[in-house]
Fold these 2 entries.
Entry 1:
Amino acid sequence: MKKLSLAIALLLAPTMAHAWPWSNDMANQISIKPQESVDQANPGMNPFPKRSVPVSGSTVFIKDQQAANKMANPVPADEKSIAQGGRLFAIYCTPCHGQSGTGDGLVGEKLLMKPWNLTNSNDMHKWDTKDYPDGYIFGYISLGGAVMPSYANDLTATERWHVVNYVRNVLQRSQVGQTQAQAK
Ligand code: HEC
């Protein structure tokens, strides 16, 4: 019996050790914590830097790509949304997918897996809305792919839908992708 309780105690030891004070020693030290004042005369939280803006809205949780495919686009593809999507696409997507959206960006050239073609000259699939609805593109931006990073932290959900509207209404309707495919 003694042996058994010793064995049980030994088994439990690692779990208990984890809760002992030394497990958070490193975090609790005399250092300045995030947003803490460096000025001892004025302790408390630091004021936010000038011109900093709070992030609006909350994160939209997306389980996986399949769940994203089913999401309906809540942002009407009007001129304003498409223009905003274009500005965001230029910042976040052109390095890899290129201005044309065909995947000819300068960063994309360096990747082992080339960025896929977002226009209808894509030879893997034709972007028909049945198999590749708006939610598919929204999901890809939010979750990322094997090589492509996730943009859920950089773009709010609404901003991501603006990008979707731009991809759908400008890139997939423009002649750029098509003429490039014909030239192949
Ligand atoms: C660092 C390079 C990089 C950036 C930046 C990038 N992508 Fe990608 N993207 C890729 C790569 C590489 C793939 C190929 C698939 C993978 O990585 O899983 C891809 C695939 C995709 C796909 C799937 C295409 C298909 O045919 O199914 C979509 C949609 C997409 N990207 C949209 C975007 C959008 C929109 C942005 C900007 C918010 C963006 N990507 C930014 C590299 C990038």
Note: Helices lie at 2-19, 65-69, 79-92, 94-97, 134-143, 157-171, 175-183.
Entry 2:
Amino acid sequence: MPRLTTPPRPLDVTATFPELAPLARTTIRLHPRPGSPATADSSLGGPLLWPAVEPWPTCSEHPAALALSPDEVRHRRRILDAARNRPHPEGTDFLTPDERVIVDGASQPRPIPQPGPIPLLPITQLYARDTPETVAFPAPPGADLLQLLWCPFDHKGRTGPTPRTELRWRTTAHITDPLTAAPHPAVIGKDRYLPEPCVLHPEPVTEYPAPHELPEPLADRVEDWAESHGVGYQYDLAVAPGCKLGGHAPWSYTDPFPMACPECGAPVQPLLTIDGYESGGITWRPLGESPVPGRPTHLNIGRDHALQIYVCTTSYDHPHQQYIQ
Ligand SMILES: [Zn+2]
Ligand SMILES: [Zn+2]
């Protein structure tokens, strides 16, 4: 696939509001698109490069939970995709009776045996070599691979229930004996927590803070100015939609609240955003890409929001935090 390129912003916000220039951050849009990534590739929902000696992370918190089968969920998606792409007589079900049974059954939570604790699902891995040289890879010294996994069931969180995430930073040169067959869960809590395998097309873009993080008089002036030009400040000029590395917070689900590292009290910064929807406002759609995918990963967090992972600004050893935004 050719490189995906975000068009220039419809307005240069710093030309009118130079006070925003120092607040600019470079974020890397990951642009996940359906594919067949291998462990050597940056991916979303693809296999992870994992040392065979390291235990795969698991979750033991859902022994009696009603669940879905990930195999059935994937089968259901294939059936729905095929059915949507073929003609059917008006006024009739677009599925055959047999397909209808499978599709409805796959989305019905029920008790499903899971031998032992639930293996976490690979969500994303990003190799430093796939990120632009002009952007510092957010990792401990020497690490060149970032990985995110999650438990595909809801866990209680400050901003609402979300999958529980785990992060790994790795030095790929140290992985001499990689795991060849990763464990897969037999159960998931929600269809929308199971990603479809996607390859990534990382692209740096410039972001500015959402209006919620600006002094109110400035936020009002910037938003009025953008509106007078027929665009929205946050969604067209400031914060990119979709999965990304770094950047600013896509505030909308909640208003900003104080955040600090639970270990040392230092400020935290956004590391990764996992967003189901890639397109957002039309101004962010990559140039020349057609058709524009809505939810290529099949993920959906909260009610059409995003899961944002924050890390401590003083130590990568301190625990990360995760919020719906
Ligand atoms: Zn769990
Ligand atoms: Zn800390």
Note: The longest helix spans residues 70-84.
